Fold this protein.
Amino acid sequence: MVIPRLFIISLLFFNTLFNNPKDNSIFISPVKIPLQLSANFGELRIDHYHSGLDIKTQGVTGKEVVAAAGGFVYRISVSPGGFGKALYLRHPSGYSTVYGHLDRFTPEIEEYVKSQQYEKKSYLVTLFPSKEKFAFNQGEVIAYSGNSGSSGGPHLHYEIRKSDSEIPVNPLLFEFGTADNIEPVIEKLVIYPISRNTLINSNHNIKKINVTGGNGIYSISEENEITITGLAGFGIKSYDRLNDSFNKCAVYSIELEIDSIPVYKYVMDEFSFNESRFINSHIDYETYMKDNIYFERAFILPNDKFSAYKDVFNRGIYNFTDNLNHHVKITVTDAHNNKSALSFKIKSLTAKSALPAEPIDKNLKVMPYNRGNKFVADNISVNIPSGALYDTLYFIYKKSPGTNEMLSDLHSVHNKFIPVHKAYILSIKPTVIKRERIENGNCSVRRRSEKDRIEQ
């Protein structure tokens, strides 16, 4: 595997110029209290990435929220869920800012919102005032922090978006008072067999290994010798810490090098809301569902189209078959350029001595990731659209008899450990109908003792 280094350096330089804002000092802190974060941009969440910063408000509501830059209110949202009470400001720079989970707005906005709620006869409103109606200078109070909407405690959700596309960008790319000199922490390494014939330490299973170290330098105990035969990918469990906060936040970037050659890079500069669900492919979804632990892949599943991946070669997957030692390095970085690196060696073995994998069960239906798939059996059909699967699926289906209280047999459709990017259609035909009848207008109900079978 040979990759021209000059080409790689040029790509990295171009991406740095393109992604970083031209003026990173255009915003100030949206709060007047000391700036402390409980969550950062790109944090791993259920079915989505976090699209902003969660700013601590000293455990209380009612703290002043100010305009991070001069601009006008272009949207006001009030909802019992989501961001609760939220303000959206547009700025001349081409960016917009979002302030969520508010307790209340300034009096003039509060009065306007209440009049619209009465007019629409609804608490839930989304309003788009004219740009002349509510204009603010940088630093002027626009609202007061709260705990409204889907919030687990008093805080301010703060976002910076590109105005033309509403794409959220990482607020930590801008300088507005955040400080961080703490290196990210790396806790575990995980190695994934990509092929069914891949062997990791003479085994076909995923290998999880604890790492040792600190202060930016991590390694694997010499007792943990790693041998691989065939295609393999890597992943890690890591987190970042911010100054004056005990919260575990997401890392900004993950880079993989094999023999000093970059093969994978993930950078959390920005993402669109319609691709946020790709988090279910980026993480080890099965481990998350079983253990509530986030492992992040340093390789890409075939149908993962998330835009945060940069300079990736062969999806970050390496074929270990040359009987040589290979040096692997995984580097994680935070938005303030604090780095931590995990370095280790892999002994690559030829496939001559490898044991073949167990044969694929002929009863399993193969569902390719790059097309729509359909499964049909007695009284059930499963239609999975194209683009729903992240990887080829060996579909498992089982059926067992239902009880007397059920309208059908009990159908087991694969398992909960495989995520889908889109909804699929599951159709089950009942085998039994129980009819109820209201008689004599007295609302008494008589259930028939016999079962009415559907004609097949």
Q: What stands out?
A: Residues 5-19 form the longest helix (15 residues). Residues 1-18, 437-456 have pLDDT under 50 and may be disordered.
